[in-house]
Amino acid sequence: MRLGDKIVIILVLISLLGIGLYYLTSGESDTRYVEVWQDSELYGIYELNNDREEILIEKDGMHNLIVIENEAVFMKESNCPTKQCIAQGNISKDKQSIVCLPHKIVIKVVNKNESEVDFIVR
């Protein structure tokens, strides 16, 4: 192998290492949050990586218990008649949501690094 070949290989390896480091340091692992909305008003914002966080919403006879665990959120308890909000299971990815229609509760996973605008219609 000639000296020129060795230099090219070293430069390619350095470039790949730089690209890899860039993607590792610009990750979104700690930027996801949970927004809890009740009756179209923001009830609270919680970190998705804050394990064992419990959010209790009680108002006018309604009871909902939301749990953040293992970087996912789910509805643990609800006294709504259908219980479909509990059946929706865990969510952890950006833009996923859980909805309790009878109690007007929406739980959304959001990424704070992304733009607030989803799309523009003209």
Going across the major beta sheet, what is the strand order? 2-1-7-6
Total number of distinct structural domains: 2
Average pLDDT for all residues: 86
Strand content: 35-45%
Helix-strand blueprint:
Blueprint: H1 3-25, E1 32-38, E2 41-47, E3 53-59, E4 62-69, E5 72-78, H2 84-87, E6 97-100, E7 105-111
Antiparallel strand pairs: 1-2, 1-7, 3-4, 4-5, 6-7
Key structural traits:
122 residues, mini-chromosome maintenance (MCM) complex, domain 2, alpha+beta, 22% helix, 3-stranded antiparallel β-sheet, single chain, 2 helices
Architecture overview:
The protein is an alpha+beta fold and 122 residues long. It has two domains: 1-29; 32-111, Sandwich (mini-chromosome maintenance (MCM) complex, domain 2), CATH 2.60.320.10. The protein is 22% helix and 39% strand. It is built from two helices and seven strands, in the order αβββββαββ. The strands form two sheets. It has a four-stranded antiparallel sheet with strand order 2-1-7-6, with no helix packed on it. A three-stranded antiparallel sheet has the order 3-4-5. Strand 1 and strand 2 (41-47) form a beta hairpin. The longest helix has 23 residues, at 3-25. The chain is rod-shaped and about 80 Å long. The relative contact order is 0.16.
